[in-house]
Design a protein that fits this description.
Keywords: Aminotransferase, Pyridoxal phosphate, Transferase. Pfam families: Aminotran_1_2. Belongs to the class-I pyridoxal-phosphate-dependent aminotransferase family. This protein is of the alpha/beta class. The protein folds into two domains: 158 residues, Aspartate Aminotransferase, domain 1 (Alpha-Beta Complex); 256 residues, Aspartate Aminotransferase, domain 2 (3-Layer(aba) Sandwich). It contains 18 helices and 13 strands. The chain has a seven-stranded mixed sheet. A four-stranded antiparallel sheet has the order 9-10-13-12. Strand 3, helix 7 and strand 4 form a beta-alpha-beta unit. The C terminus is likely disordered. It binds pyridoxal-5'-phosphate. Pyridoxal-5'-phosphate binds next to helix 6. The site of pyridoxal-5'-phosphate has 14 residues, from helix 6.
Amino acid sequence: MEVVKKNSNNNLLSKIATNNGHGENSPYFDGWKAYDANPFNLQRNPGGVIQMGLAENQLCFDLIQKWVEGNANASICTPQGSTDFKETAIFQDYHGLPEFRAAIANFMSQVRGNRVKFDPARIVMSGGATGAHETVAFCLANPGEAFLVPTPYYPGFDRDLRWRTGVELVPVVCESSNNFKITREALETAYDNAILANIKVKGLLITNPSNPLGTFLDKDTLKDLVSFINEKNIHLVCDEIYAGTVTSGDDFVSIAEVIQEEPTCNLDLIHIVYSLSKDMGFPGFRVGIIYSYNDNVVNIARKMSSFGLVSTQTQHMLASMLSDNKFVENFISESRVRLANRHDMFTRGLSQVGIGSLESNAGLFIWMDLRRFLKEPTFESEITFWKIIINEIKLNVSPGQSFHCSEPGWYRVCFANMDDETTMIALRRIKTFVLKSKKLEIKTTRQMWQSNQHLRLSSRRLDDMLTPHRMSPHSPLASPLVRAQT
Ligand SMILES: Cc1ncc(COP(=O)(O)O)c(C=O)c1O
């Protein structure tokens, strides 16, 4: 028999398998690869890359561990809990364990200050918010139809909503001039652009609180969004995965609260995506939730959830943990305090070396403004500077373009996936870098000044220095890129 050569062409595979829809080639994932190749470790590799591209909440695992130790019967793998092993192992109903759905509904209310109630009958499981988004997209849109998404947005949406569904995303361009607010004008423009391009818009997807901005929407904006989607008769999908990851207490407003005050809102258009990956810090458990106010969506999503159920072992343990109201209450408030402290420590450290960021009070990250470090206000310069951050400062942060930010020079830096010591080292590296580049800047300016004096400021040199390009804040004179290029 002739030996068949290993076939490298893609004809053997499906279009979905070969269309690169996972997005692994984006800078967002490149940063992770750089970290994987040289990961920081305080003892074993102190010069390695510090992972600041991961929105993980690791600040409260001591509280979780204590609860686990005090509640051995919540696990089916302990002598105290093993009597539930068989029943748990054989349960496979896609509705999920009733006690799990009740506990999740209760937890969702608690992280929203108990101002709204959630109905356990509407809780649908999925494999993380990742799976939830795809399921919602499958339920609401056909291939080629689109969701509007305000920018900057979580890069995973390009994979989760688009890859296997064939659904499109149309950016709603938000700008730094008004702190990236979602305006009616920007929504209408995006909607009209989609129509001009012959794309049918089926919904608006918002992330509230926002990843990567770390801000949340005020009630008036949410009301405006509700009236926009009702006018257009399109869906509103609200990713509230960071609902409990808010440092300023009760200020966050959920869409669930807003629709209570909007009697004319068509509830069939409203859907919430949630997960325990951020508020509890359990991305490994893959607990995603679709909470829809539309009965048909609940029913269909539940059937689809067969493709991404949460293991009953996990449901069993979490049902116990999340129905412990005292523990949850303490966990949420302590988590807020620790996040706020870390957030302040990081922003203070940055501001000491003149690095600003968008004012924020939610999420696990800061939206850093590094525009002044770019040689030119272009996305090429943004990537060039990002390479310096990865290769010289050795921090994996994520460049704004991977979040579809419309303006170059913004970078997301995560601060809750490490201990205090690593945070201090990261800050020290940033400070050292900025101070070094400042020295270089002074030296370069002085050298220029001396040589210009030497030349007695010949008119040609003077012209050079005064041209807007030379004097812009993006001038190479003011940029550490000078160092990188030489
Ligand atoms: C806004 C947003 N949605 C969804 C996800 C995916 O979450 P999960 O781990 O639950 O799939 C993330 C993860 O970073 C996120 O930031």
